[in-house]
Amino acid sequence: MTVEVIWDVAFKTDTGVWNLGILSECVIEKSTKNLADRATIILPEANFNKVLRIQDSIAIGDEVVIKLGYKGIQNEVEFLGFVKEIITDDDTLKIECEDALFLFRKGVKDKQFKPAKISQIAKYLIEQIDPTFKLDCDYDIDYEKFTIYQATGLDVLAKIQEETGADIYFEDNTLHIHPAYTRKSGDVDYSPQVNVEKMQLEYKLSENKKVEITVESTALDGTVRSYSTGKPGGEKIVKKVGRMSDQAIKIIAHNEYKNKISDGYEGTFDAWLVPFVEPSFTAGIYDEDYTEKDGRYYVDSVTTKFSESGIMRTVQIGIKLSA
Fold first, then answer.
1. Least CB-packed of 58, 122, 164, 298 within 10 Å?
2. For residue 142, what are the domain limits?
């Protein structure tokens, strides 16, 4: 049975809603690790020998909604965001889009926090950018000092994510900040015998993993504090963070180590559009040939690619959550 692929790309412009009528390829990248989700819409430069003038119809900052599905089975909103850039490249046109974190590219007023929790900093950004946004933050690492200087809201969030390892993303008008792998938004099951096209997974045992994590922070008086955890003799990771308390440094080190050493699969697999999945889902992987390796994993990222050849999702898994 042939299943018909359906798609819809709509832009909300100053003059109304404009629907895209032609498409070569669309790639949607979602991740809890990259701050903003992204979509790349690729068009031919010309249609029936007529040059496409996309810039006459849409502009930077216009809202975009992308739907993908199969006729009669599923038709989901796969991406909500804004036009970030329109690029003419060789014989194609590219429309680069970002989710609502695009709005955090706005500059914010300089400010020094002394001391501050992550939630305080995030609330300050929201007040500067759009007070109607909500905040869901349950990762209150303490900074002894945090300085914002000539930065955008996105710059500040990137710094917080780099230093604390937090999952930071925007969803349903809400800025989310959580310890990595803790917020779970859905469940899905996969099997190479049923709904997986190709597996690029490697199973590793924690007993064979030697990882040592060191977190360093420079105190207000200039001295360097450090805390190490893990097993020496293998991979060594040194993470430098801002001015934080000793307790905050320990929390970050233990979280980093915990996320590095669990048993289980590592890597990606290719699946189809159905079932729906996105980062922060829990994905069960069940292989009839290797049942001893069955388990449920946190989904780190999902790349969905649509073209004339069909639709495919590449799912990257994070830590194993349960058997």
1. 58
2. 103-178
Q: Check whether residue 114 and residue 79 sit in a common domain.
A: no
Amino acid symbol at 299: V
Where b means 16+ CB within 10 Å and e means fewer, 135-145 reads eebebebbbbe
pLDDT digits (tens, 9 = 90+) for 238-249: 888 888 888 888
The count of structural domains within the chain is: 4
With a cut of 90, say whether residue 49 has pLDDT above it.
no
Q: What pLDDT digit, counting tens, does each position of 105-145 carry?
A: 999 999 999 889 999 999 999 999 999 999 999 987 889 89
Q: Which residues contact 111 (CB under 8 A, 6 or more apart)?
A: 124, 147, 148
Q: Is 0.85 topped by the overall pTM?
A: yes
**How many Cα atoms sit within 13 Å of 190 on the Cβ side?**
31
Contact residues for 239 (Cβ-Cβ < 8 A; gap 6+):
163, 165, 213, 214, 215, 216, 252, 253, 256
